[in-house]
Amino acid sequence: MTLTRNLFRSSYFATIATALILSISMFSPNALSEEQEGSTLGRIYLAQINSYYSINGFYNFSANQGDQKHLTVIVDSSNKIDELINTIQGEVNDSPDTDDFKEVSGAWKKYKKVLNQNIKEVKKTGYPDLRLAGDMATENIKLNSTLETLYNSLAGTPSNKPNKITEMSRKAGISLALMMTKYSARTTSTVSQVYSGGDTEITIDTLAAEFETILKELMNQTKGNEQALDLLDSALTKWDFIKSSYINYNENRVNFIVNLYSKKIISDIDLALESL
């Protein structure tokens, strides 16, 4: 596995070529492990991931004069959130968590409305409206906060509590999705630094250090499963390639590569969890 990483690092241009090939088909929310959808908590996790993918897609859409590939990412992520929230609603009806779900539902409606307003603005003018973009970021942060509250409420009961590896995997996925979103907000100059507030004030380099710690601990926890370990080693190989951009986020601006590999890392982690 170490040899694989060394070979990967040894050819910068080969890696870029691989990234370009992989980018022909933009990463879809459907590429995430379907195993996560086997539980209410898994669906809440996927709703958070897709929430970040949707706003991250907008940042790239706005910076590329309305590139249709990025618009497809936004639409696919939004549709996935709709589907997940509708399913979650049926599972929490008449439960003590109904009020928390209502907060999620309301936050999603507000975020989706302002997200669509931002898309229309870019389509009309070719550029984002910074006030609208700021409102969108605020509503996205609120949505993820309500999803986290609902998740924690459900996970607090013994019958729903995830095992350690599941919890670590989901924490890693959400941490990287947030990191990618903050990175895109900074590197797409027209909407620079609009994604801020609340817990998202944590810096990108701090998130990067925390993510790497979790990923390496996941590898330690899954040493007995060759398939899971291979997938996590693949994630670590990709991470080794892009982490300097996250750590030196004010200097290294390679948003396309960072986005591509971040999403594939999240997929690797989800698939590793599924293999256990």
Describe the structure.
- The chain has about 280 residues and is an all-alpha fold.
- The chain has one domain (about 1-275).
- It has ten helices and no strands.
- Helix 4 packs antiparallel against helix 5 (about 100-125), helix 7 runs antiparallel to helix 10 (about 255-275) and helix 9 (about 225-245) packs antiparallel against helix 10.
- About 40% of the residues are buried.
Brief account:
This protein is mainly alpha-helical. It has helices spanning 2-10, 12-22, 40-63, 68-92, 98-125, 130-155, 164-187, 204-221, 226-247, 255-275.
Distance between the termini: 19 Å
Query: What is the subunit organization of this protein?
Result: single chain
Percentage of β-strand residues: under 5%
Unreliable residue runs: 6-26
What do the pLDDT scores average to?
Answer: 86
Total beta strands: 0
Largest sheet: none
Helix content: over 70%
Derived structural class: mainly alpha
Can you tell me the overall shape? globular
Q: List the helices and strands in order.
A: HHHHHHHHHH
* Rg computed from alpha carbons, rounded to a whole number of angstroms: 18 Å
- What is the domain total for the residues? 1
Count of DSSP H/I helices: 10
